[in-house]
Amino acid sequence: MQIILLTHERELTRKTNTGQLALAAFPEEVKSIVWSRTAPDNDLVAMLASQQAKLLFPASDTEPALSNAQTLLAPAQSTLIATQRMPSQVVILDATWQEARKMLRQSPYLKTAARVSLPPLMPESAFILRRNQQEGGLCTVECIIALWRQCGRAEQATLLASLFTELNSHT
């Protein structure tokens, strides 16, 4: 499974950006594309349109948040990863909650993308370096760890969890 981080430009300079942990540790499995409102990445748009890639996002605004965003999506458009075959590519919005909502609102290709979500009973976020802006919200790296655990990549998930614990302890 390839993870594509659609990264808000402000995340590029934040020392608390957890997506950077995954990019550094797993450059073959995780890549980043900088989000642009006016010039979206053509390959990403095509992958989402063809459903080759799916957006990791909550199935509805009543479910726990998954990446760094909340959705207003109709439940029929989304499936729980636990009950379906894992997609080969998953797109995660790498941004704060406010930024991710803006990204979704201003990107028609994200609004219409096929979505997957984590099971609704995920543990609370352990991220302490930033104030969680959405109850039940997970940071980017916690989403990747959960995805990898679900698809049987326990070794990678454990390594990433260790890196996250180290980053998170630098308060």
Characterization of the model:
- By secondary structure, this protein is α/β, with parallel strands linked by helices.
- Helix content is 32%, strand content 16%.
- The protein has a six-stranded parallel sheet, with helices on both faces.
- Helix 5 (140-150) runs antiparallel to helix 6.
- It is globular and about 35 Å long.
Class inferred from helices and paired strands: alpha/beta
- Shape field: globular
Largest sheet: 6 strands, parallel
* C-alpha end-to-end distance: 32 Å
The strand order across the widest sheet is 2-1-5-3-6-4
Oligomer: single chain
Helix content: 25-40%
Q: Spell the H/E element sequence.
A: EHEHEEEHHEHH
Strand content: 15-25%
Low-confidence stretches: 61-80
Number of strands: 6
Tally of helical segments: 6
Q: What is the mean predicted local confidence, pLDDT?
A: 79
Brief overview:
The chain has helices spanning 19-25, 42-49, 97-105, 108-111, 140-150, 154-168, and strands at 2-7, 30-34, 53-56, 78-80, 89-94, 115-117. Helix 5 (140-150) runs antiparallel to helix 6. The protein has 171 residues and is α/β, with parallel strands linked by helices.
